[in-house]
Amino acid sequence: MGHTLPAGSAIAAFGVLFLGMLTGLDGAGFAGLPLIGAISRALGHGHPEYIRMLSAVGQIGSVWTGGGTIVAWSTLVAVAGIAGVKVKDLVKKNFLPVIIGLVVSTLLAIVVWQVPETMISIPLSDQTI
């Protein structure tokens, strides 16, 4: 999989974001972090900065989804109870802003931590991790 996607690929970043969001559906948001880290390392082509960026993108996807912003359990139930709002209504109102925030933060991560062209041209067999 790491050999198919080019280093610095937006497809890889959004793929890791999506996987992070899937692993966040357990409600805690932290259970999938080891999986996200392993996938980021596999897709990172041995570039530490790119691996860190992919890991961060996957982590925000997992925590923002499962940590009480979209999934209707966990802290979202407590917040809805304190605010006197139905949980279902709060989930509906949170969905679009959270998704927009995830997409924007992923795009920003791609721009800020872009892998330099000189690193992409290094053969994979010569890299050390």
TrEMBL record:
Record key words, sorted: Membrane, Transmembrane, Transmembrane helix
- The highest taxon in the source lineage is Bacteria
Sequence intervals crossing the membrane: 12-36, 56-83, 95-115
Stated name of the protein:
Membrane transporter protein
Where does this protein come from, organism-wise? Alicyclobacillus fastidiosus
